[in-house]
């Protein structure tokens, strides 16, 4: 079923616009909350992904977070400069770069779970439990998960 046609499509009423606006609001609020840690919301995603073992290479991170490899390289450069992430070449395959958190990176990642839920809960405060569950279900469906 087509929900949009050339006759009924308007930018500000599209699902893409609403998702983009919602994402930008959350990112801005998260960036403000993370200032005390000296990181941004995209950097938070990288640190948490490495921390929980969800990804250990730039390619895996790019795929998991939906970020192109060029942006991922810039994110990792900044995190490495901040002393939060280390890169090392794989012994088995020199083309592969492995990522690990430094001690400081581990400390920063450990503080994120005290900050991020507050930001998300503030944005979701008007949602009932059922509405929250439905939103999550619909977003997973939209994303093809």
TrEMBL record:
Gene3D superfamilies: Winged helix-like DNA-binding domain superfamily/Winged helix DNA-binding domain. SUPFAM superfamilies: Winged helix' DNA-binding domain. The keyword Transcription applies. The lineage of its organism: Bacteria, Pseudomonadati, Pseudomonadota, Betaproteobacteria, Burkholderiales. GO terms for molecular function: DNA binding; DNA-binding transcription factor activity. It holds the Pfam family MarR. Keywords: DNA-binding, Transcription, Transcription regulation. Residues 12-144 form the HTH marR-type domain. This is MarR family transcriptional regulator. InterPro entries: HTH_MarR-typ, WH-like_DNA-bd_sf, WH_DNA-bd_sf. It comes from Paraburkholderia pallida.
């Amino acid at each position: 079923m087509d929900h949009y046609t050339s006759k009924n499509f308007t930018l500000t009423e599209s699902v893409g616009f609403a998702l983009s606006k919602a994402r930008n609001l959350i990112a801005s609020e998260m960036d403000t909350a993370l200032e005390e840690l000296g990181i941004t919301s995209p950097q938070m995603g990288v640190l948490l992904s490495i921390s929980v073992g969800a990804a250990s290479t730039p390619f895996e991170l790019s795929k998991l977070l939906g970020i192109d490899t060029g942006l991922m390289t810039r994110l990792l450069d900044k995190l490495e400069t901040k002393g939060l992430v280390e890169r090392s070449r794989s012994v088995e395959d020199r083309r592969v770069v492995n990522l690990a958190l430094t001690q400081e990176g581990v400390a920063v990642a450990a503080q994120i779970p005290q900050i991020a839920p507050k930001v998300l809960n503030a944005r979701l405060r008007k949602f009932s439990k059922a509405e929250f569950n439905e939103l999550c279900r619909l977003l997973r469906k939209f994303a093809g998960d």
